[in-house]
């Protein structure tokens, strides 16, 4: 059973080392395995999906990775929220208007929603992702499906307000945090490699939705560049190392293998702590959700 706790707790005092928390704010409980893979020979089995954002915290700063989606997008896309992400942050004791930096892994609606609800934050994003989301590919419905125009327009407004920090490939914006462009699912998904008390952890975001995507080399059904995705899978291995240092963007197995803590009624998954033993064969299975 997770233990009740206060948050933000005192994080590591060493600048460059962070506690990393995953907050699951919505779940696609009815999803099935074939909806998550381009391959047509995937065994039909229940395969729910989690929607997450991540909190990086130490004694010096608190940084968000992604901002989730809000009530409008939930209604329009039939993706019910378990809790509004901004309400969840406040329930955890994190005031959105006090956040100074947010890393946006990519501009899809479930990662870049709510960016209008942070009064002071700077948004870190890959240059090519913004070019893609505002360019000619968005003339095609199949390409723009995963984007929300209001989120994109809001980011453009933040750019004009000098609140967007653009990165072109690998970057090191903060002590102990590096960004790595892993294109394929979108034009420039960026993974976030974070130093923690147990060593580096790679928040892969949607460069791989599930462990099974990169372990089976089986791209997610929504992929703009299959070749780039397969190359990104190799980079995930290089950046992450062992599989239990790699955190896919949407896999409920994360909540299964990592310790958790309940804070004011919300469950946080503790990615800076050692997961229970889990090998690649177990994590790549699609018939055990």
Provide the fold topology.
Elements: E1 3-5, E2 19-28, E3 49-57, E4 62-65, H1 71-76, H2 85-91, E5 101-103, H3 109-112, E6 122-126, H4 127-133, H5 141-144, H6 149-160, E7 164-167, E8 171-174, E9 177-181, E10 190-196, E11 199-205, H7 211-215, H8 226-240, E12 246-248, H9 253-257, E13 260-263, E14 266-270, H10 280-284
Parallel strand pairs: 1-13, 4-5, 5-6, 6-7, 11-12
Antiparallel strand pairs: 2-3, 2-14, 3-4, 8-9, 9-10, 10-11, 13-14
Structural class: alpha/beta
- Please tell me the total number of domains: 1
CATH architecture label name: 4-Layer Sandwich
- Overall pLDDT metric: 95
* CATH homologous group name: Ribonuclease Z/Hydroxyacylglutathione hydrolase-like
Helix fraction, binned, reads 10-25%
Largest sheet: 9 strands, mixed
CATH topology description? Metallo-beta-lactamase, Chain A
Distance between the termini: 20 Å
Q: Report the C-alpha radius of gyration, rounded.
A: 18 Å
Spatial order of strands in the largest sheet: 1-13-14-2-3-4-5-6-7
Could you tell me the strand content as a percent range?
25-35%
What does this protein structure show overall?
The protein has 289 residues and is α/β, with parallel strands linked by helices. The chain has a single domain (17-273), classed as Metallo-beta-lactamase, Chain A (4-Layer Sandwich), CATH 3.60.15.10. 24% of the residues lie in helices and 25% in strands. The protein has helices spanning 71-76, 85-91, 109-112, 127-133, 141-144, 149-160, 211-215, 226-240, 253-257, 280-284, and strands at 3-5, 19-28, 49-57, 62-65, 101-103, 122-126, 164-167, 171-174, 177-181, 190-196, 199-205, 246-248, 260-263, 266-270. Strands 1-13-14-2-3-4-5-6-7 form a 9-stranded mixed sheet. Strands 8-9-10-11-12 form a 5-stranded mixed sheet, with helices on one face. The protein is globular. The chain starts with a strand and ends in a 5-residue tail after the last helix. The model has no long low-confidence stretch (mean pLDDT 95).
């Amino acid at each position: 059973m997770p233990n009740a706790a206060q948050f933000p707790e005192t994080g590591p005092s060493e600048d460059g080392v962070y506690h990393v928390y995953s907050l699951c704010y919505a779940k696609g409980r009815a999803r099935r395995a074939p909806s998550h893979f381009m391959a047509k020979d995937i065994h039909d089995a229940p395969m729910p999906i989690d929607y997450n954002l991540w909190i990086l915290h130490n004694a010096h700063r608190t940084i968000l990775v992604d901002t989730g989606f809000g009530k409008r997008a939930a209604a329009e896309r039939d993706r019910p929220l378990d809790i509004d992400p901004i309400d969840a942050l406040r329930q955890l004791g994190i005031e959105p208007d006090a956040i100074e930096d947010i890393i946006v892994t990519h501009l899809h609606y479930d990662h870049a929603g709510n960016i209008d609800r942070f009064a002071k934050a700077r948004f870190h994003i890959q240059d090519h992702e913004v070019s893609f989301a505002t360019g000619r590919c968005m003339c095609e419905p199949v390409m723009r499906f995963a984007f929300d125009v209001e989120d994109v327009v809001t980011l453009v407004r933040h750019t004009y307000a000098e609140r967007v920090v653009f990165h072109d490939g690998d970057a090191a914006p903060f002590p102990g945090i590096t960004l790595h462009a892993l294109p394929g699912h979108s034009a420039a998904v960026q993974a976030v490699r974070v130093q923690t008390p147990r060593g580096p952890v790679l928040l892969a975001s949607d460069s791989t939705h599930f462990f099974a995507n990169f372990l089976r080399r089986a791209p997610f059904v929504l992929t703009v560049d299959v070749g780039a995705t397969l190359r990104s899978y190799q980079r995930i291995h290089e950046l992450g190392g062992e599989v239990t240092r790699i955190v896919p963007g949407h896999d409920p197995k994360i909540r299964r293998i990592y310790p958790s803590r309940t804070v004011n009624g919300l469950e946080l998954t503790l990615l800076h702590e050692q997961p229970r033993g889990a090998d690649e064969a177990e994590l790549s299975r699609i018939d055990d959700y």
